[in-house]
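P.,

For your records, the input lines for the assembly:
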Amino acid sequence: MRIDIITLFPKMFEPVFSLSILGRARRQGSLQIVVHNLRDYTYDRHRTVDDTPYGGGSGMVLKPEPLYDAVEAVKSIDFTFQREALREVVFLTPQGKPFKQDTANELTKLDQLILVCGHYEGFDERARELLADREISIGDFVLTGGEIPAMAVTDAVSRLLPGVLGDEYSAYEESFSEDLLEYPQYTRPRVFRGLEVPEILLSGNHKEIAKWRKKQSIKRTTERRPDLLK
Ligand code: 4GO
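Structure tokens returned:
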């Protein structure tokens, strides 16, 4: 899968996507991430990306032309050759549809995911209308830009792609893979500051361990996120 990110702050992404699991996936070629500077799609001498809002008010609004040209340019990249690429343009905004694990699963089916990050007060509405296939919010809070939400979406989608998680991790049997919170995990030492690892986990009885974990998951979900239970 290829993920393209359109942003005014491309430098925010390189360190995040060069490290750890996503860094390894990119070096191996199981994931392609390309970051584009919105300012490269301006044509005036001052490389203007924003302007004051019609109707007045504070803050600046991203002009539609650079956004339109950037998205068009990124959409026209031919990287699947033979086949017509399955692409979606996603704007990250607080007004978007709440991002869930199911959304991440759905997005893995694409050849190309194009994430558009706003800044300042937001986008000219016509850019959104003309370009966005969907709008996603990562939660009910406002950020200074869509960059952190774009990173969250990229991470959640990438880890589901074949070859991205190594053998040491598994996307399966985890929080939300069956709408339950994850059970508690322990590693050595057996006793830490007087707190012991539950006896059952030392038993070697895998059937009983699986039962205990399931019970813990249900208990946690009931206590912390009853909204997740059907
Ligand atoms: C997305 C973007 C919050 C989210 C954003 C979110 N804040 N909850 N801010 O996913 C356009 C200008 C939106 C700043 C951006």
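Two observations worth noting. The domain at 2-158 is CATH 3.40.1280.10 (Alpha/beta knot). The chain has a mean pLDDT of 95.

Regards
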